[in-house]
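We include the pair:
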Amino acid sequence: MKLSAPDHVFSLLVDYGDDPNAAPPHPDRMFFGRLIGHGQRHLLKQYSLKTRRFIGNTSMDPQLSLLMANQGQVYSGGLVFDPFVGTGSVLVSCSHFGSYTIGSDIDYTLLHGRGRSSRANRQGQWRARDENFKANFAQYGLSSYFVDVLVADAGRLGLREAPLFDAIITDPPYGIREGARKLETNVDCQEEADSQDQTPFSSAVRGCRLSEILTTLLDLAARHLVLHGRLVYWLPIYRPSYSEALIPSHPCLKLVSNSEQCLSRHVSRRLITMEKVKEHKLGDPNLSVVQRKFLDSCDNFRDNYFSQAT
């Protein structure tokens, strides 16, 4: 017997519900298991946003971004893509586990570290010259895992039609702190430009619905994930109208997990993990399935969020 240094540690976990002030006389559930590893909560302090060089209004908390990397099963030598990269919080966590990372965003000024700082002690001041995207990777000694970022609309990346990424992990904009936007191509200028031998298209950024973001994201995963690669993303939910049957789907993707983070009594967001189980055929249209009831709920999420807040 080696009680001071046992070969195995067994634990009994007892669940008395979520309300400590109204615990039932008997536990709801009991779990018995063997310890197989320790947590890594020290990483929360190591990657804390309080000490990070480059942050924005939507920088993901390290606890959540590390969880997303775990859900995406990122591994050393893999390639991870974030199509709504922002300040790169998700990619920093993926690089911690040894994955090479690449991102894109439609916001040119953010990717290049332009504009005013988001830090509380520097409100109203312009960002410093070294307050930029690459600074975060350099700060944590992860520069060798940073591939690049693209200034691009997630729906118009211009990538080669082939499986490229081992995981796509992202937090799409849903209109609370940042609005959803896309590139609008003005095809009405086609004939005039052709007659003058000019560039045939002009473009501008416009707002778009959350439902457009979701269908674009699922199609992107179906086209560019390797087989058995994972898509991980946050999905905003208006709880009174939520049903798991309404989760967006794609014939090439299988739902792996669906976890809820409550934001208030009526709204939450769910961490959706999907796995690519079928190859996308070249030339196939976007086969994403998003039901009308869920589309309406998504597109009205901002209104629902602020109406409940008041």
